[in-house]
Each structure stands twice: as C-alpha cells, then as structure tokens.
Specification:
Blueprint (H helix, E strand, L loop, with lengths): L6 E2 L7 E4 L25 E3 L8 E4 L2 E6 L8 E2 L4 E2 L24 E6 L5 E2 L3 E6 L5 H14 L10 E5 L12 H14 L4 E8 L7 H5 L10 E5 H4 L2 H19 L4 E5 L4 E7 L9 H14 L3 E4 L9 H5 L5 H20 L10 H5 L5 H9 L7 E5 L9 E5 L5 H11 L3 E6 L12 E5 L2 H6 L6 E2 L2 H4 L4 H16 L5 H5 L16
Parallel strand pairs: 10-11, 10-12, 12-13, 15-16, 15-19, 16-18, 17-18, 19-20, 20-21
Antiparallel strand pairs: 1-2, 2-3, 3-6, 4-5, 5-7, 8-9, 8-14
Helix pairs in contact: 1-5, 2-11, 6-14
Length: about 500
C-alpha cells in the first residue's frame, strides 16, 4: 500500500500546506519544491511560498487571515505570524443555488409514528421543567420511577429523561431571551422522540407552566401532563403525583411500536466540536456528502453555530434558494456582531485553545472547515434558535458555537438525529436525540474508540474517498434512526447537555 502523503495542498490557490503527521525540519513539501524550516504538528500549516506581512494566507482557496510578519517558504504558519485581518466577503445572494437531483431509490427507517405526523427515532418519557427551581424535583421523580421499576411493564418505552436547566426565572417576561426559552421548551414538549411529557414548574416563576400549555393541546396524542410544586403541596406530594402521571403517560407511550417510515422524516442536526486541522479535510466534507444524500431523499439537515460560520457565510448566501433567504442569514450575522460588541466580546474569540493545538488559527479558517458539513445543497431557509423547522432540505438555525447549547436548539427545532464531528475528541450525548460521533483523524479514533462511532481519518491514511465515507455516515443515519445505539447512548450521556441559550440580563 502506498504511504499517505505527509503534507497536502488542498487547493491550487493555497499558499500553505497541511501536515498529515508530525513533521520535522528539512522535509519536502510534496511537489512544491520547498523544505520545512522547522517542525510542525499534525494538522498544522506550513508556507509553500513566501508570504509578505499583510498578504492573505490562503487555505481551501479562501482567505483565512493575513500574515502579521513576513513568512518564509517552509515556515510554520500559526498564531505567531497569522492574524484575523480583513475579511470582507461578496455575498452574491442566490447566485450559485443548484437543486440536487432526487434520489432514484426509496429508503426507509423503522421509527415511531406520532399523531402529528412526525416520526421519532426514540420513545422516551420526558420530565420537562419550566424553571431551575423544579429541576431537583424532576430528578427525584425520575429516580423514584427507576427504583420502583415503573417502566418494567412498558417494554416499548426507552427510558425517562429529566430535562432540567438553570433558567426560567430572574429574567424579563417579554424580551428576546424569554421568547427563545419559550420556543426551546415548547419544542422539547412536542418532540417526536418523546412518547409523552410530564411538565413541572414551581409555580411563581417567570416562565409559567400556563404560558407553555397556553390552553391548547401541545401534543396531538394527549400524552402531556403538567403540575406545579406549590399547587401540589410541596416536594413529596409532587413526587407522588408525578409517579401517577408518569404511569398514565407510559401507558400511552407503550402503544407505540417501530414501523417503516420514509427517511424524509429524518431531521439531522449537524455539529462540530473540538475541531482540528483535519476537520475541514475529512469528517466535515464527508458529512457534507451524507447531508446531500439525505436531502436528495427528501430529508432535512440543519447547520448551526452562527459564530462558527463567520467569515464563510458567503459560501452559504451564494447557495441560498432566494435572495431573501441569503439576507436572513446575514441579518443573523449582523445581530451577532452587535451582540458580541454589546457584551465586550469579539467574533474572533474562536478558535479555542484546543482548536489551536489542533492547527486552527483564526475563526475564518475554522469556519471554512465547519461549513463543509453543509455539502452542496441549496440553503432552503434560516431559522431562529429553537424555531420549528417547517421546510425540507438543507437549512440553517441560528445558535452560539457552544455545542450543548447549539444542539439543544436543533433538537427543539425538531432534529431527531444529531451527528457530531470532532478532532480533539468531544464526549457528550443529547437525550432524547441519539448522537453519532465522527472522528476526523485515526490517532484520536484509536485513542477514544469507546466514544467514537465512525472514523474519517482513513480518508487520509487509507485513501478512502469522501463519497464512500459519506455513504457510511448516511447508512448510520438509517441504522441509528431504526434503533441501533450510538456510543454516547451506551455510555449513558444526555443528563447534563440540555443547555438553553440565555440571552439578556439575569435579574
């Protein structure tokens, strides 16, 4: 077998190469006719031509920043000589949107058909809290149910998930933060991966249970009960009543069985975290292939993390289905610029220290790799955090780059699968939605194989094509949606990863 290249140049315009392994000084950089001047770690960049101070540094054929000093050919390019610099983009809204051909085959998965037309990939009972003050009681109810063996009589129910969080009071009752939390909690209450919901509040909080219920049937199947601790008479009485209500809900949820459903019912939230220099070369573009495959079958994929597409948003606006959709995305980018300024932050707060150890230097570089998850499908629409996704195809949901928060929004919007690419090795899971973990490099995959579901490092080490790896990811969508457990599910993740986006003052 041919040895994989130790360094690669990703695009003819690039003036840097990427190290595919730890390299030393004096090594040849492919066919560039340049030798390295010093060592560089796997995933890091080396100049393949002289780059003058102020000149653009190019990767993927795109600007990732400007040289802050003169850089010699063969020199390591990173935080010591590369900065954010100018990043003006030509958005060219809707100028490159090309509809994908529909798939020639019909594929199905085995899911739980809900009364509202949605299809779940899991069948949990949720104990949803309106406020932090009811979080402990929700956990007490879940623990009491487990000790009592309540679910033993309901084999079709996957488990009980207490959804607790740190907000719901000490906030305005009529601002953007309140609306965002209301959308998030409502989205979880209606999620197809829940066979039933028990909603618990304290009683005096800002996020009132009555606002969530609103005098309307939240769930078409009637599998929702609600109460407040103050009305029930305290903790013990609420636990007792909660167990009664859970049993009633479980009886309804247990009638659901897996049946074939078109994979157009899949909505996949796409995330990347703990990114490295491989992310934009292996796992993210392979996921982009899988995203396009699902879109061709009529399904939906969600890209998020607005602060981590910054500098690459022009690649999405050009694929917008309409000018209006492109402008909606830029409106969110402008909101973020204002939001970070008001809070004395900056959009180039990324990459994180771990990202930088993995070879990423600026947010522009990180964003270009992150956007590769989106494939080539047209951008159908842009949604607020937790807003219900009502269109098929590839869409964008506004969110922070903080992964648990971003995934929380995607699930609230309707994602019944999550796929998460990682280079450094992120560990997490997101009940009630299963999370597929995809490793960007083989070394990390071997080291953390108990947490990773798919290895994309073999795209480099074994010459596996992006198309073949994308199909592997697509096939795992179907098998996990049909009930196969992911590594994070086997490990029991999902108890602390519900993180609503808190916007505004805590009072």
């Amino acid at each position: 077998m041919n040895q994989p290249p130790r360094m690669i140049i990703l695009h003819p315009r690039d003036n840097v190469a990427i190290a595919m392994a730890d390299i030393g000084a004096g090594e040849e950089i492919g066919s560039a006719g340049v030798k390295t001047l010093q060592s560089a770690k796997q995933g890091h960049k080396v100049a393949v031509a002289p780059i003058a101070a102020g000149q653009n540094v190019i990767r993927y054929g795109q600007t990732i920043g400007q040289a802050t000093v003169d850089i010699a050919a063969g020199e390591h390019v990173h935080v010591q000589n590369l900065g954010m610099g100018e990043h003006t983009r030509d958005y060219a809204h809707a100028s490159e949107a090309v509809a994908l051909d529909a798939a020639l085959e019909t594929r199905t998965f085995n899911g739980y058909h809900r009364a509202d037309g949605g299809v779940g990939t899991r069948n949990y009972l949720g104990i949803l809290t309106s406020v932090n003050c009811s979080g402990s009681v929700a956990k007490f109810i879940a623990e009491a149910a487990e000790k009592s063996g309540l679910l033993d009589a309901f084999p079709n129910v996957d488990g009980i998930v207490p959804i607790t969080h740190g907000t719901g009071c000490g906030m305005s009752g009529e601002n953007e933060g309140y609306d965002t939390l209301l959308r998030t909690l409502s989205g979880y209450a209606q999620h197809p991966n829940f066979g039933g919901i028990l909603l618990i509040g304290l009683g005096c909080e800002v996020m009132q249970v009555s606002a969530l219920v609103g005098g309307r049937p939240i769930r078409a199947d009637g599998a929702l009960r609600y109460m407040t601790i103050q009305h029930e008479g305290g903790t013990r009485k609420t636990i007792e009543k909660g167990l009664e209500e859970l049993r009633s809900i479980a009886e309804l949820a247990n009638t659901a069985v897996r049946k074939p459903a078109a994979i157009s019912h899949l909505t996949v939230g796409m995330q990347c975290g703990g990114s490295d220099g491989y992310s934009g070369i292996t796992a993210n573009p392979a996921l982009g292939v899988a995203s396009d495959m699902l879109v061709r079958h009529g399904g939906t994929t969600i890209l998020s993390e607005t602060s981590e597409i910054y500098g690459a948003e022009h690649l999405l606006t050009r694929r917008a289905a309409t000018v209006e959709v492109g402008e909606k995305l830029i409106d969110r980018v402008r909101w973020w610029e204002d939001y970070t300024t008001r809070n004395k932050g900056e959009m180039d707060n990324n990459p994180s220290p771990g990202n930088k150890r993995g070879g990423l230097t600026t947010i522009l570089e990180k964003s270009l790799g992150a956007v590769a998850k989106s494939g080539s499908a047209p951008l159908t629409d842009v949604y607020l955090f937790g807003e219900k996704i009502d269109k098929k195809g590839f869409v964008f949901m506004d969110s922070p780059g903080f992964d648990p928060c971003s995934v929380t929004g995607q699930i609230a919007s309707g994602a019944n699968l999550i796929v998460f690419t990682t280079g450094r090795g992120s560990v997490s899971g997101y009940m009630p939605t299963p999370c597929i973990k995809v490793a960007t490099n083989s070394e990390m995959y071997r080291r953390m194989s108990d947490d990773m579901d798919i290895n994309c490092g073999d795209i480099v080490s074994e010459g596996v094509t992006l198309e073949d790896k994308g199909r592997d990811i697509f096939e795992m969508f179907i098998s996990v949606a049909s009930g196969e457990q992911t590594k994070s599910e086997e490990l029991g993740f999902g108890g602390v990863e519900f993180v609503p986006w808190q916007i505004g003052a805590v009072m």
